[in-house]
From TrEMBL:
Entry similarity comment: Belongs to the 2-oxoadipate dioxygenase/decarboxylase family.
One of the record's GO molecular function terms: dioxygenase activity
Its EC number(s): 1.13.11.93
CDD domains given in the database record: VOC_YdcJ_like
Pfam families: HGLS
Name of the protein: 2-oxoadipate dioxygenase/decarboxylase
Species the sequence originates in: Rhodococcus wratislaviensis NBRC 100605
Domain of life according to the entry: Bacteria
The keyword Oxidoreductase is annotated on this UniProt entry: yes
Length: 464
């Protein structure tokens, strides 16, 4: 009996979702084509183009985004993703990360082992509606919303059973694998069931995101994001093709130093045909703008010390942009004038970013006694390779959401917000929610220990 291992299930799932989404949103296919053209050109023209992932991985790489309404739905979708070897990483509270009303808390499901990421790094950014946050929902609206959400079923029993079997057996037999991927993909297709116009409109007054989650009977892929090696070039090319892009690229600016963390942009949500049910029961044609085409460019993962420097530079850029210059121009000026290292070597020496280590071709272990990674790298004893940032930024995620909303919604800041934490999220999921920094640090420390052992240096690792 042929068993399809977890990573192949994940690769099939990502490919099936990409094919489905391309049929639903044709502009997504254009986005993928442009990404592949740019990536091919960058790899041909730059020796370091594959420094943060080879072209095979980058070409296949996607992240999706979905939205659910309740802890039950969150727990069920966590089971499905676990069947594909995807685990919750990070806690993102978007409620205060944007000017507009985005009443959700989120995590990202992804592989957590380096070899699994290398095989297929599919991620799904998953948001849950904060229905008990009084800044957005009155007690009456919360009650009616919970009743609506409690009546719907997003994921069938067969799908959940197959997911649990895939978790237990770390894969599935061929026939069951085909069914699992098909059912999982179908669960995220756009529903053709008519939407109650009055109910949707009431939630849309609070937030377009709230309406997209709680105003419909099914969930769906909100966007599917390819990875590009030159996001600035992509932004320009997509505009030339007539697609309206959001106002700016989210994340750090393009500057003279290495790419760090994550840069994202998207074409604006397109008007898609939907069926609506009017108050008199009549079903009519209409449109909604909720799904958009996002693209990302990934950089080096920063340590907490590096993130502090990053946050300070972003705040300085915001202040500079308020003086009239574009955000990108202000950012480049601020970053280039800063003391933030302009080389990977500088990032490594100051412990601002995460790296893996391997023994160099020429080394002299007896000449290095302090086990300091930077000293070992300077001597040529170790070679440092940057770790790619696999996760997300709350400000950027909220910025993408906000840029694609038809309105700002409503938020009563005089009320107290509901208390959501990473521990609450883990309890709702019934699974550990990993912190990105802990995963990067563990990967870095494991590579350093292995290298020191090869060199005959048995002392402990200086964690950075």
């Amino acid at each position: 009996m042929t068993v399809i291992p977890t990573w192949q299930l994940r690769a099939r799932f990502a490919a099936a979702l990409s094919s489905m989404y391309g049929r639903e949103v044709p502009a997504y296919a254009t986005l993928v084509d442009v990404c592949e053209d740019i990536n091919t050109a960058v790899v041909a023209g730059r020796d370091d183009a594959e420094r943060l992932g080879d072209i095979g991985r980058v070409t296949a790489e996607r992240h999706g985004a979905i939205r659910v309404g309740t802890p039950r739905e969150l727990r069920e979708v966590g089971t499905i993703f676990a069947g594909f070897g995807m685990h919750p990483v990070g806690f993102y509270d978007l409620r205060d990360a944007a000017r507009s009303a985005v009443p959700v808390v989120s995590t990202a499901f992804r592989p957590i082992d380096a070899d699994e990421l290398a095989r297929n790094p599919f991620r799904v950014f998953t948001s849950m509606l904060a229905v008990d946050d009084r800044r957005f929902f009155s007690e009456d609206l919360q009650s009616r919303l919970e009743t609506f959400l409690g009546r719907r079923t997003l994921f069938g029993e067969e799908l959940l059973t197959l997911a649990e079997r895939a978790i237990a057996e770390r894969g599935l037999p061929s026939a069951e694998a085909d069914t699992f991927v098909h059912l999982a993909t179908s669960a995220f297709e756009l529903s053709s069931e008519p939407t109650d116009r009055a109910w949707y409109a009431e939630l849309e007054q609070v937030s377009a995101v709230a309406a997209d989650i709680g105003g419909v009977t099914r969930t769906h892929i909100n966007h599917l994001t390819p990875r590009v090696l030159d996001i600035d070039e992509l932004y320009t090319r997509m505009q030339r093709r007539g697609l309206k892009m959001i106002d700016q690229i989210q994340g750090p600016p393009r500057w003279t130093g290495p790419d760090v963390l994550l840069r994202q942009t998207s074409f604006r949500a397109l008007a898609e045909p939907r069926k609506f049910r009017e108050s008199n029961g009549e079903v009519v044609d209409g449109t909604l703008r909720v799904r958009f085409g996002e693209v990302e460019s990934r950089g080096i993962a920063l340590t907490p010390r590096g993130r502090e420097r990053y946050d300070a530079l972003m705040a300085e850029t915001d202040a500079a942009a308020r003086n009239g210059s574009s955000w990108q121009d202000a950012g480049r000026s601020v970053w280039d004038a800063s003391d933030f290292p302009t080389t990977e070597t500088g990032l490594e020496e100051e412990a601002l970013a995460y790296f893996t280590y391997r023994v160099g071709d020429v080394h002299s272990p007896s000449g290095v006694a302090d086990r300091d990674p930077a000293a070992l790298v300077r001597s040529g004893t170790l070679v440092a390779t940057p770790i790619v940032y696999e996760d997300f930024l709350p400000r950027s995620a909220a910025g993408i959401f906000q840029s694609n909303l038809s309105g700002n919604g409503t938020k009563d800041s005089t009320n107290t917000g509901a208390d959501y934490t990473i521990d609450w999220f883990a309890g709702a999921l019934g699974r550990e929610v990993h912190t990105p920094e802990a995963l990067y640090r563990a990967q870095q420390d494991a590579s350093l220990r292995e290298s020191l052992t090869q060199l005959g240096i048995e002392q402990g690792v200086n964690s950075r």
